UniProtKB/TrEMBL annotation:
This is (wild Malaysian banana) hypothetical protein. The keyword Heme does not apply. It comes from the Eukaryota. The active site is at D104, D334. Residues 86-466 form the Peptidase A1 domain. Keywords: Aspartyl protease, Glycoprotein, Hydrolase, Protease, Signal. It comes from Musa acuminata subsp. malaccensis. Transmembrane segments: none annotated. PANTHER family: OS07G0603500 PROTEIN-RELATED, PEPTIDASE A1 DOMAIN-CONTAINING PROTEIN. Belongs to the peptidase A1 family. It holds the Pfam family TAXi_C. Residues 1-25 form the signal peptide.
Length: 473
C-alpha cells in the first residue's frame, strides 16, 4: 500500500480516538429497499452509471485482494434506490440510533457513517436522503476493539497484528487503549475507512451486545453504510447466530419510493422458508492463498448448471460454472451488485443466443450500446405497444430454477423508451488477460432477483427460491 495510504490510516486512527471515544431469542425481520443512483435527465446516463457500477463491483468481488437463546423473527422493510441497492434500517447504540444501511450479501463487515466529523466524497444526490451518521459520544455502550482482540483478525492479517504494542491487560477488549489498526475497504465504485468498535445492536424484542461494527469517518461514493450479510465471522448473521434469513426485493419501478418496500426477515420460522420453495445447496470455494483462507470464502456460491434463452440451452463452458483449484469460476448470489455480471466465456454465447432469437424483429442499436455500456441493445419500432422477448432461465443444482420475466433482464431506455438493453454486464475488452479473469464467473445481481423470495438457510447450507410479489403487505 502506498505510503500516503499509511498516513491516511494513521491520521484516521488518531482522529477517531480524539473525536469519537474521548467521552465516555426471537427471529428478526427487516424491510429492504433499493438504493437510488443519482438521477439523470437522460435515462441512458442512468443505465450507463448502473452498468459501470455493476462492472466495477464485479471486478472487486472477483479480485478482493486487489482492491443468545433464539428470539422471535424480526421483519424489516427493504427500500429500493435508483443508484442500484436496497436499504434497511438498524438501531445501534445505547440509547438506539436509527441508521439506514445497504443490504450486502457479498461482504461481511457491517460499517456505519460515524461521528459528526464524517466525510463522504462524491456521495450527494438530489434524490437521496441526507446521510445521518452514528454518534459514538451519544452512546454509553461504545467501545473500541483493541489491537490484541481476536476480532481485530477479522479485518487484518495475523502478521500485521504481531506488530501491535505489548499489552499486560487480561481484558476481553484486548487492550482498547491500543486500538485495532484502521480498516480500509474498497468496493466496486467506492471505499470507506475507519476503526472497528463494539456496540449494542437493538431490535424490538432482543439486543445483541458487543456487536463488532466499523466506525467509518471517511468514505467515497458510498450513499449509506453497509450491513454485511456474507458468510464470514464478522457478518451480521454470524454475529447474531442466525440459522436463517430471507429477503424479497420489490420491482425497480418503485426506486426511491418512500412508501412501497420489500422486506428482510431474520430467523424466519422454518415453515416460512420452505413453503413453495425450490432449493439449491450452497457450495464452498476452498482455494487458499499464501497461508490464509480464500478471499472468496465469504461469498454464497451456488451450483448454476445451465442457462437457457427461449427454452434452449446456451453453450456455456462447464469450467466457468465450477470454481477450480485456484478459486476461479462458479456463480455467486450478491444483493449488493445491481446488474448480473458474466465473464466473457459465459456472456458471449448468451448475447449470441438473444441476438439470434430476436433477429428479424428488432435491430441492434450501436448508438445506445455506446452510451449505456450495455449490450445488446435493440431499437424498438415507433409506437410499439408491446415487445416480444425470449425467456431467460437459470437452472441450479437440486432442480431449483429462476425463470425471469423480461423486466428482470431488459430495461427500456432512450427518448420515448425507444430502445431496450440486456441488463447483464461483462468485461469491457472481453480478453482473457483482463483483471477479471479470476474470481466468480457469474455474479447474480439484485436486478435479476426482483420479486423473488430468497431464503438463505444457513443451518442446512442451501438457498431457497420462490417467485412472488415482494410488495410488503
Amino acid at each position: 500500500m502506498p505510503s500516503s495510504h499509511h498516513l491516511l490510516l494513521l491520521s484516521l486512527s488518531l482522529l477517531l480516538l480524539l473525536l469519537l471515544f474521548s467521552a465516555s431469542s426471537t427471529p428478526v425481520s427487516l424491510q429492504l429497499s433499493r438504493f437510488p443512483l443519482p438521477p439523470h435527465p437522460d435515462s441512458l446516463h442512468r443505465l450507463a452509471a448502473l452498468a459501470s457500477a455493476s462492472a466495477l463491483r464485479a471486478s472487486l468481488l472477483k479480485n478482493p485482494r486487489r482492491h443468545d437463546a433464539s428470539p422471535a423473527p424480526y421483519r424489516s422493510p427493504l427500500f429500493p434506490h435508483s443508484y442500484g441497492g436496497y436499504s434497511l434500517t438498524l438501531a445501534l447504540g445505547t440509547p438506539p440510533q436509527q441508521l439506514s444501511l445497504l443490504l450486502d450479501t457479498g461482504s461481511h463487515l457491517t460499517w456505519v457513517p460515524c461521528s459528526s466529523s464524517y466525510q463522504c466524497r462524491s456521495c450527494s444526490s438530489p434524490s437521496a436522503a441526507p446521510i445521518i451518521p452514528f454518534l459514538p459520544k451519544s452512546s454509553s455502550s461504545t467501545r473500541l476493539v483493541g489491537c490484541h482482540n481476536p476480532r481485530c483478525l477479522w479485518i487484518h492479517p495475523r502478521d500485521r497484528l504481531s506488530r501491535c504494542p505489548s499489552c499486560n491487560s487480561t481484558s476481553d477488549d484486548g487492550c482498547p487503549a491500543v486500538p485495532c489498526p484502521p480498516y480500509a475497504i474498497i468496493y466496486g465504485s467506492g471505499s470507506t475507512a475507519g476503526l472497528l468498535m463494539l456496540e449494542t445492536l437493538a431490535f424490538p424484542h432482543r439486543t445483541v451486545p458487543d456487536f463488532a461494527v466499523g466506525c467509518s469517518i471517511l468514505s467515497e461514493r458510498q450513499p449509506a453504510g453497509v450491513a454485511g450479510f456474507g458468510r464470514g465471522a464478522p457478518s451480521l448473521p454470524s454475529q447474531m447466530g442466525l440459522k436463517r434469513f430471507s429477503y424479497c426485493l420489490i420491482s425497480r419501478r418503485y426506486d426511491d419510493d418512500a412508501v412501497e418496500s420489500g422486506f428482510l426477515v431474520l430467523d424466519p420460522a422454518k415453515d416460512d422458508t420452505s413453503s413453495g420453495l425450490s432449493f439449491t445447496p450452497f457450495l464452498n470455494n476452498t482455494a487458499t492463498g499464501a497461508d490464509e483462507a480464500s478471499p472468496f470464502s465469504i461469498y454464497y456460491y451456488v451450483g448454476l448448471r445451465e442457462i437457457a434463452v427461449g427454452g434452449e440451452k446456451v453453450g456455456v463452458p462447464r469450467s466457468a460454472l465450477i470454481p477450480n483449484s485456484r478459486g476461479n469460476g462458479g456463480a455467486i448470489v450478491d444483493s449488493g451488485t445491481t446488474f448480473t455480471y458474466m465473464a466473457p466465456p459465459v456472456f458471449k454465447p448468451l448475447v449470441a443466443a438473444f441476438v439470434n432469437r430476436v433477429a428479424g424483429r428488432y435491430n441492434r442499436s450501436a448508438a445506445v450500446e455506446a452510451r449505456t455500456g450495455l449490450r445488446p441493445c435493440f431499437a424498438l419500432p415507433p409506437d410499439s405497444a408491446e415487445v416480444e422477448l425470449p425467456e431467460l432461465t437459470f437452472r441450479f443444482d437440486g432442480h431449483a430454477e429462476m425463470r425471469l420475466p423480461p423486466e428482470n433482464y431488459f430495461a427500456f431506455t432512450g427518448p420515448d423508451r425507444a430502445a431496450m438493453c440486456l441488463t447483464i454486464v461483462s468485461d469491457s475488452d472481453g480478453g482473457a488477460s483482463s483483471d477479471n479473469a479470476g474470481g466468480p464467473a457469474i455474479i447474480l445481481g439484485n436486478f435479476q432477483q426482483q420479486d423473488y423470495y430468497m431464503a438463505y438457510d444457513l443451518e442446512k447450507g442451501r438457498l431457497g427460491l420462490r417467485r412472488q410479489s415482494c410488495l410488503r403487505s
